[in-house]
Model the fold of this input.
Amino acid sequence: MHMRLSTTLALALLVTASLAIFGCKTDETVSAPDCMQSFANDLNSGNRDLGDYTHSDATNHYLALTALFWNSNFEGDGSFTFAMDGNTATATEAGNNFVFTLEKDGTTYAIRTIIRNGITIFE
Done:
């Protein structure tokens, strides 16, 4: 039993570490809620290298690969919270309201669209 618990814990730590390094796009399957949780953790810690959380087929994916995109649209002040409903997340941060939709990008989920205060900022 102890060995199984240690193996499970080690696997969980490995997945968490790979999400921190690669965003949602890893070789492992990452659910929409897990992707959003990792995104929220990174954003709240002030990380501005968040492009790996976005869907590679999004029209303006190249914008998400820049810190300017994230600095222009998010505070990164630690106040980002979200709730999931299927593959859609509603979120708030510093008085702004967001809606994120996530879609499969290969074997894992990634952010496909972001709406900020009713205006689409990423698609």
